[in-house]
Amino acid sequence: MTTQTSAPGQLDEAALDLVFRNARTHNGWLDKPVPEALLRQAVDLAKMGPTSANASPLRLVFVRSPEAKERLRPALSAGNLEKTMAAPVTAIVAYDTQFHELLPRLFPHADARAWFAGNAALIEETAFRNGSLQGAYLILALRAVGLDTGAMSGFDKAQVDAAFFAGTSAKSNFLVNIGYGDESKLFARSPRLDYDEIATTL
Amino acid sequence: MTTQTSAPGQLDEAALDLVFRNARTHNGWLDKPVPEALLRQAVDLAKMGPTSANASPLRLVFVRSPEAKERLRPALSAGNLEKTMAAPVTAIVAYDTQFHELLPRLFPHADARAWFAGNAALIEETAFRNGSLQGAYLILALRAVGLDTGAMSGFDKAQVDAAFFAGTSAKSNFLVNIGYGDESKLFARSPRLDYDEIATTL
Fold first, then answer.
1. Nitroreductase domain: which residues (chains A, B) (predicted)?
2. Residue B3 in domain
């Protein structure tokens, strides 16, 4: 497939369709394996997106094996159970509540660790905001490398944290099913707000 | 510019560079106006990204006029002041804490408003998470249409809310300077974590 940009330094229409306009949240999955190399490529793209003070709090568990899926099962809400158990991969999108301990390496030109150390509310807010930004970069990066996604908030975070993050400083944020979507299982697309309902120019 | 995808349904290398790998957080801005049409295009792309129950809490103010920039000025941290006042546009990325009132329209196939009504903690968490996801979609959409960005958390949210959102249900989340970046003002790129520090496969 050859595509053409509409102007230098812009994505072309096919690329915009792939990442934003035609991509859908999938509920059914084709019996087609997800190459490990594509997950790595998507993570290595997503991690380049901006975060506050380069804090980079995103942490991920790719749940792939039947054993790991069974650990996830009891935490899933009823509406998300079947599709998640059937997905080739489910990413637990999490954030590190001790991200600031890495700032001497990630933000070496200032003592950014000191901005956060001892301020639990600022740590939590920064980790949640920037871990969510990075989770969004990941969704779009997965689409960019040719995978389909289905993100979800319907699960018991405390159960997931106990099952996957016990003894660590990571906390779960949301889940993303990953695979090649079965278009026959898509719901009708829900409407979006109009531009003028979202944005004002002053 | 003609680009070529590496496989059907994937972005090509030039597109991945534009959106993820070569894009930078800018601190200086060329004297080149930002077309209103590109801001609209970016919002209309970003709003297609997934949110929980299609909640779509993102709200934006594009601060463009000198008068509006002066309203923003007192809320900016010292390190963000000069570059933000100089940026052609500064987006206030906010979220609507009454987003659930629109769910009968945005998620018509279930009574999703009832999932949130009266649960202030769930409303705040959902608005913050999904408003942040949509803010990330916006950053990548702005890059996709050929603009440069510089996102920031360093500002006084209460001051911004008082100056721009008084009497509304919107709350500020972060800021994004928008324009055509001056590459001579870029800082050296900060390091990212290795794949294995971010992700585990089970």
1. 29-180
2. no
CATH of the domain at B132: 3.40.109.10
pTM of the model: 0.96
Find residues 53-72 of chain A whose CB sits inside 8 Å of chain B. 54, 56, 58-65, 67-68, 71
Residue A34 at interface with chain B, using a CB cutoff of 8 Å: no
Is B147 a domain residue? yes
pLDDT at A187: 87
Residues whose CB falls within 8 Å of the CB of residue A169, separated by 6 or more in sequence, listed in order: A96, A97, A98
Question: How distant is the alpha carbon of residue B9 from its chain centre?
Answer: 26
What's the structural domain count of chain B?
1
Q: What is the ipTM, given to two decimal places? A: 0.96
Q: Does A119 touch chain B (CB under 8 A)?
A: no
C-alpha neighbours within 13 Å on the C-beta side of residue B118:
2
Smallest Cβ distance to A193: which of B47, B126, B198?
B47
Residue in this structure with the two tokens 């324009």, named with its chain if needed: B179
**What token pair was written down for B62?**
């594009």
- Do B18 and A9 make contact, defined as CB atoms within 8 angstroms? yes
